[in-house]
Write a structure and sequence with these properties.
mainly alpha, 270 residues, 9% strand
């Protein structure tokens, strides 16, 4: 008999009144902190001032959260948010005359990716920093951040996998009694591997666009494949050949391949 891991930890680390700190939120905070420390090392190596990184952090946090939030609302739950518009923007729900703080519980990684690129473009324009240089450096830390966020999803028993009988399957007791693929950990492991590989590539001084291109291609290819062992996130995905996460990953993969080929032809080997 296989003894599956039973996972039923509370998603809340602590609660004070209407405010609760969840593991998913902690994962986001650790993601930003770890990314900052890695980029600080990169900036110092390349002779860039720390003040630039501090300003960039503000842009990236704002772009990530705004993009991830809007991505969830528009891609996954527009039917609800088109009649609850303010809940799309504010971390509260308004029901029965009561206002409840919920935080931004609905966040989509594809929207976050778009938000990061737009924030980087705005920062590039505002401070006259080459956009591709910026995107290549951000590419180094995005997989690390993604791994920490997916670990937070695991703690919260979110984005669960389909039922499985594998020895490493997990029973998310807060959901049901079925052993399932720990899809969150699959993603986290893939992102850690991609982080290591991108870091090795960075040390070889690749041509502009290569890091960003490999990031898009590798991360969203992993996401596309892992979606096959995930439960659908929303009801409208049921019965479809590809779910929303896979459909949104396809243009990201194509864009990554475009950057790899375009910059390879333009700059060649260094």
């Amino acid at each position: 008999m296989i003894l599956f891991l039973h996972w039923g930890i509370s998603p809340e680390i602590f609660r004070i009144g209407g405010f609760a700190l969840r593991y998913y939120s902690l994962g986001f905070m650790l993601a930003f902190a770890a990314s900052y420390m890695v980029l600080l090392h990169v900036f110092r190596q390349e002779g860039r001032p720390r003040e630039m990184l501090d300003r960039l952090l503000v842009y990236i946090i704002a772009g990530t959260l705004a993009g991830a939030r809007l991505g969830h609302c528009l891609f996954y739950d527009w039917a609800y948010y088109k009649v609850h518009f303010w809940e799309m923007i504010l971390p509260f729900t308004f029901s029965g005359g009561q206002i409840t703080f919920t935080g931004y519980q609905g966040l989509a990684s594809h929207g976050g990716a778009i938000g990061i690129v737009l924030a980087a473009a705005l920062f590039s324009y505002r401070y006259r920093v080459p956009l591709m240089w910026l995107l290549d450096r951000l590419a180094l830390v995005v997989p690390l951040a993604g791994a920490l966020i997916r670990t937070g999803n695991f703690f919260n028993a979110e984005i669960i996998g389909k039922p499985a009988s594998l020895p490493w399957a997990v029973v998310f007791t807060r959901v049901d009694a079925l052993p399932r693929h720990p899809a969150q950990l699959y993603e986290a492991l893939c992102y850690v591997i991609i982080f290591v590989l991108l870091w090795r590539l960075y040390r070889e001084h690749p041509a502009p666009g290569q890091l960003f291109g490999w990031l898009l291609t590798a991360v969203f290819s992993a996401r596309f494949l892992i979606e096959f062992v995930k439960e659908n996130q929303v009801a409208f995905e049921n019965g479809r050949l590809l779910n929303m996460g896979q459909l949104l990953s396809i243009p990201m993969i194509i864009l990554g391949i475009y950057f790899l080929n375009f910059y390879k032809r333009k700059y060649g080997k260094r």
